[in-house]
Hints:
globular
Amino acid sequence: xxxxxxxxxxxxxxxxxxxxxxxxxxxxxxxxxxxxxxxxxxxxxxxxxxxxxxxxxxxxxxxxxxxxxxxxxxxxxxxxxxxxxxxxxxxxxxxxxxxxxxxxxxxxxxxxxxxxxxxxxxxxxxxxxxxxxxxxxxxxxxxxxxxxxxxxxxxxxxxxxxxxxxxxxxxxxxxxxxxxxxxxxxxxxxxxxxxxxxxxxxxxxxxxxxxxxxxxxxxxxxxxxxxxxxxxxxxxxxxxxxxxxxxxxxxxxxxxxxxxxxxxxxxxxxxxxxxxxxxxxxxxxxxxxxxxxxxxxxxxxxxxxxxxxxxxxxxxxxxxxxxxxxxxxxxxxxxxxxxxxxxxxxxxxxxxxxxxxxxxxxxxxxxxxxxxxxxxxxxxxxxxxxxxxxxxxxxxxxxxxxxxxxxxxxxxxxxxxxxxxxxxxxxxxxxxxxxxxxxxxxxxxxxxxxxxxxxxxxxxxxxxxxxxxxxxxxxxxxxxxxxxxxxxxxxxxxxxxxxxxxxxxxxxxxxxxxxxxxxxxxxxxxxxxxxxxxxxxxxxxxxxxxxxxxxxxxxxxxxxxxxxxxxxxxxxxxxxxxxxxxxxxxxxxxxxxxxx
Length: 596
């Protein structure tokens, strides 16, 4: 089965292939026992090529009995007619994710009840719907359709995610088939936007247009999505599988926190290709990806990606959900063994050794006005913490067309990049964008702050995020207006509503993990645990690193702007200007008292 590839052209929707027959009981055939690798006797991890495919928990059992892709037919033929109450619970809390659907949080349930209530007690009879946008590539026609769906079916809600998707809320199951019809008519889809599958492939937002690009990764993204997204053989992975590919020297796809990533590099003998990284991921056990030390030619990217995905499928840990990410396998194997298995079992040939890509010299968010290779310009704009609306998206599509553009991109930083703008159209367009709430010349904190969905819609959240972050940005814009010129670079502020790090808190200059704090009167108030000095290679750091935590360092939501202002002023007073010290370096250098 294939799904439409989101590119700057609108492809036709391919026909869905028949599902391959499985043996009785739904399990995939296990490898011959004599072919399995051996290991010391211990409790099995659920690795298919080591332990066999017998499911070791309920989640693995239902995935084998009936895969997530199969639920689309029931949504269209049964649930859209029968309504929310007709949905089978396993479909609702499991298989619906394979089509980008999660139930959203019921309004009025406070964060203290997040971990104590059952899913059916937390959830509303409405859905979050995630529109999959591989590489972030959109046309204005596609953007307009998403905006119209939001206003007609989603109460005008829309969020730009840091995975280059667009999320809508308040979606009824009765409306899902019509939403799919409209999306697929313009080459968009929700296939495998969630679930234990290959998620959206992050791609450089300036692919094919930037004057300083090393290579355009669009063909590689298109090949992977057309061949493997919706493929039954990869539709039951141990857990989610995140991918990223960039050809830009800013390394603009946060490659260090993806399961598999390809970063453009120039080999001294083989020309321009990709450096392969594996095993990154954050959440409650953060781990940065590692280089395998290989060079992947452009025409080998899809096969290398497929090999890594198959390793995860066949060797990934399935018994415990909290250990079922590729990063745990890599931690146990190491890069040398991982490379050997990839080359011998899945590629059938060694990959050449390759160099590391240079440290980026420019930020990877692409905010502002930049010249394209064809002489026109692209404009990176900042919606406040990724919150937009259907009305805004529709008006943006109209505005772009009025100024001669029909293409745009979403980014891994909750931003938008608008393409193909003639120089004479720049200032009129920027003025119009300001009226929409999309800034091409934002303050440093408006530019560098992102926030997850938070308690407004998410069943896992403990605190509110979008409004808290927005209020803090507006306060900081006023308080620090005279100091921004002294900052060597934007200070990233990432606000997350729970420990799962959808907003990448461990890789921010200031990362905030939502939790409830004592209010001094015997009750609780929303607040955050603080992580300081994290960052990725694309964020003005010498190298990627996780943030520092200080014992007992927490801040209330109400006091967030006060605390960030205090940190910024201390940094400016204490930084080593001669060494061009960054906030991250300062935060790791100073003693704990300077951070309180």
